[in-house]
Amino acid sequence: MKKLPKSITGSLGLVAVELVIFVLFWKLIPHGGFATWTTIEQLTRHSAIVMMTAIGMTFVIISAGIDLSVGSVVAFSGITAAVVLKDHHSWILALVLATGSGAIWGLINGLFITKLKVGPFIVTLGTMLIVRACALGLAHEQSVYSPHSHLDVLMKPVLQFATPFLASGVWLTLVAAMFFSIILAKTRFGRRVIAVGSNESAARLCGIPVERIQVLVYLLCGFLAGVAGILSYSQVTYGDPNAANGLELSAIAAVVIGGASLLGGEGTVWGAVLGALIMQTIADGTTQMGLPHWVQKLVTGCIIVIAVGLDRWRSRRAQAKAA
Amino acid sequence: MSGIVKRFGPTLALDHVYLQIYSGRVLSVAGENGSGKSTLMKVLAGVHFADEGSMTLDGKPFAPKNPADARNCGVAMIHQELSICPHLSVRENVMLGNEKHRAGWIQEHTSDQLARAALEPLGLADLDLGRPAKQYPIGVQQLIEIARALASEAKIIILDEPTSSLSETDVVKLFAVLKELRSRGAAIVYISHFLNEMREISDDISILRDGQNATEGPMDQFTDHDIVTAMVGRSVDDLYPRSNRNAGEVLLTVDRLAGEKLPADASFSIHKGEVFGIAGLNGSGRSELLRTIFGLDAVKSGQVRVGSFSGRATPNQRWQEGIGFLSENRKEEGLAVKLSIEENLVMPKRPKAWVLERQEHESATEWVQKIGVKCRDTHQRINELSGGNQQKVAIARMLYAGVDVLLMDEPTRGIDVGSKAQIYQLIDELAQSGKAIVMVSSYLPELLGTCDRIAVMHRGKLSASRPSAEWSQASLIHEAVGASA
Asked: A191–B99: do the CB atoms touch at under 8 Å?
């Protein structure tokens, strides 16, 4: 019997949760105001930045690490894009430098963690502040306004049923999710990331270059945060040094809702993407209902605890059955 | 390998050690814990670098940079600690570090075939290759790790205490595979604390003591006594001391106890001043029985009576009733390895809500001296101690808490012969002083040597107990595998 791969079956529960929440808001909001194409299109745009960041965060968390600096990296990369556009008017250069700077911050994180043997929580807590400071410095603590360019198109709202249905930035996010979920499941690199997170000493004894894998994982996470920075720039079409404050926690929450364990070894890219979508659905839904901001936070918090609790309970039962 | 020197800081772990490994032969490397045998093997497998000395493999100089390098040259090692990635599938664990790939993409089909071929001789042909390794019991995980070495087609296979978590039947399978590999010309280096295992599988033996070569030669030229003497550097005359014990009143009674899964049905009672042994295969429910008695696992039916108490209890209540538990899993469950001796000792019995450091220190020092734990002082961290000394701390902890009944699960697992002898001595003294001891062990000579009565666990059912003198190794195994009489 050919079974569906775990990456798909594991995500079905999350799809169901997303649907339940969506239908709930659809019924609660008068005149079916939530189930419109505009709302859905907007929802995907709103969640794309966290999704993109959460893809990288998935790899970090599976390797039993954590990256608290991604929010700051998103802001730095957005500022970089804006500054380059303002001074050089080249959107390609902006794209390369913005994503490249994200990758470099990731590389710095990875090198600090592996070479100095400082825990990832501490290192990225430090770089979170450092990178934010650099973003503020680069922007002279002000918003950086830049001329229009092709980068603006990424997060431009798409008119109802006009091709390509979703914003190009959203498509980019979905393609990235597809690509990296295959990387995780089908390549030697992906397997080794899981091995390192599952049992680091075993991985080392089997001759896996643990440090190199860790550096690559943080590099990847930084790079994707850089891409998310471009999306974040595109959303407002100017550089905001205070953008993406607290984004790291949303990304971590998305990954965890998606079934990852902070102890490493577990997690899927699609789970993280759905986790981000679920949180954004709650945010948009409560906003449309006109509920105050604190209600939205309350609901999101409860969802995180309940989702993760249920998931652990299920896996414990599955394990008890297997043994 | 010749003239190998390895230093860890000021400690000289290996002092000009030499070793010759021949293809088509099995070599046992014996020695007490800390004698340097594991270090020597790690040098061979590329985990550690030698500070001095050289190695040659098939006449060529051999200096592996890392484990992967050593494995590519045909040296594979099965480590003492279980090296399984619990979340990865069986297939991925077998192929770990040696993944078959094309430009980074895993070739699933080839991997499946190779993994299957490596698992088959171990009797694991039916294993679901796609299932995560954590869903299989420890014994199977150990075999998966052995399959990993087989899959890499190694010329030299090093096994560092591979049988510590295997059942008797799995050991038989493993030995059959090793003999098959030997006949195909592989060289096997075998490390074990079990003399009978070494004798069964090895052609040659090399004994290390304090980081130096003690002696070596063909296995059949050594008697057990010779080997033990060479290992400890002195003659160990009586491994299992047993003074005359007088059984007193009943301390613990277990009546038709059943847990959620295991044990299925166990009854026994134990008296003051008695050592009660439980034999059986791995997975027969021995550990589960102790855990259920201690309140760690849920009771489904049956009774546990401790003195005047009866009924279910949490581990906390059990401590108060005077029952102590020694886990088989010393590092993960038994002791907090990063804390000091002192902190571990006082754990079950904090005197007051406030931590009284001076009082703790005094009582810890007293127990460390009484039990004979070799350490710098009581502030030393557990993971800096040898296995034998760690176990002594775990036993001292039960005594510090003032228990009368000691439940010990594999009290001598993974510790060297010298320390084992001390643990046996300790157990005897405890029984002498009126404690009751329940001891689970897979090592039959130690059960026969230390216990007054022994019962055998088979598929969750505990047999009636008989005095040790009425058992033999053969009859215990017979009972454990459930062969009809």
From this structure: yes
